[in-house]
Amino acid sequence: MKVKIKKDMGLGLxxxxxxxxxxxxxxxxxxxxxxxxxxxxxxxxxxxxxxxEHLEAAKKRFLILFWAGVSxxxxxxxxxxxxxxxxxxxxxxxxxxxxxxxxxxxWFVLYVAVLIPSFKELFLGLDRLCERFGYETVSCxxxxxxxxxxxxERMIKKTAAFVFVIALLGLLPELSILTSFEHYxxxxxxxxxxxxxxxxxxxxxxxxxxxxxxxxxxxFLRYFGRLKKDKPWIERMKEHYRREVLPKTGMLAxxxxxxxxxxxxxxxxxxxxxxxxxxxxxPGVIFAxxxxxxxxxxxxxxPPQRNTYIAAGALALFSVAxxxxxxxxxxxxxxDESLFNPNAFWYYLVVQLFEIGEAVFTVVLVAYLLQTxxxxxxxxxxxxxxxxxxxxxxxxxxxxxxxxxxVRMYVIFILFFISAVGNVADVVLHFHFGWLWLIxxxxxxxxVFFYQSLQHDLLDEIRYxxxxxxxxxxx
Length: 475
Hints:
- Helices cover 70% and strands 4% of the residues.
- It has 13 helices and 6 strands.
- The strands form 3 sheets. The protein has a two-stranded antiparallel ribbon. Strands 3-4 form a two-stranded antiparallel sheet. Strands 5-6 form a two-stranded antiparallel sheet.
- Helix 5 packs antiparallel against helix 6 (198-229), helix 11 (342-380) packs antiparallel against helix 12 (391-429) and helix 12 (391-429) runs antiparallel to helix 13 (438-471).
């Protein structure tokens, strides 16, 4: 395995991640998803984490935060779509605000309890690397005191304050729902409800958070900018990486394959066709995002996967458009109103077109994902026998192994193709044949089951390949 080391050891990804981490989560809506920032930091730690235990711990924590961020997107869909009830159904007016308060409190606790320690491990690890490879991190403070602090220690304090304030500002406006009550004096009723001003409270929270965000972003960028400018320090780290870490190629490859396959393992679940109250429970945009994340995390272990990214982008575009169009339609009309209302018909036709496009590009992305896996099969799996005249036997056994994976991939593609056809039929004929949704649901679940079985066996074969190369090294 040939590993290409980034010229900045991945430090540039941290500066890109800050874009997605500086915005507050107001009303449990994250405009720039934090999970993208966590994934960028996780990938940025790919090289340096192999040289320090603090950075390895930070890498594991940011992977946990990435999955928490993905679940946050799913929770947003649940909270703002399904908990409001079916269109036209009367619901408790305090149900949604109370739920938003609950999940906002959970996210406040998660950020304070997990995100702050994650950044602490990150900056401590970078300080350790600075000390080991000759970067001067210690400087006197402005008052000239004898106690000196490194850049990393100062960033730990700034980041902890930033995370706490931003998380708190995301929670405080939602507490106004607790002031909603009525009391009676004689025959008079008095209402006290600060939640009526929730828009103003959220706006003020955004404005206050902007000041903290700008200050933290400037400090964050200056810190990593100074690290990137020290070229001799980066070169010493790269030399150490080549000398001490790269010889363990099997361990590094398995670590990257395992992490990428976990992302793809979860991502394929979002290819299942499942609806509740006319809203998609598993939006295709998350499937597209996780496929891109899983494939990109493999990096130079694969040739460029341009078609996979194009298919994922098209799926994400149709999925987001369908979600928006569906919300607009259900916000103005009842689901079956398109059968007799001309205006509703044209709105619903747009929703149908986007949903058909999402179904088509879902199966296209599955096809490209399977093609990517087959490239992994050909490059990283095989059977080797020891002894003389074993070359032909090894080649024959390897071909049989590759063919068995190819057949399983064809089966998976056929299942998802039938699911896509059933999805299109359900979109067009839903009000006439209400049971059609069972076809895409059943076949997509089967496809996911077979895919995850295939991916598990593929990871075992990759592990076996590296073990066999150690047992029978190439002459």
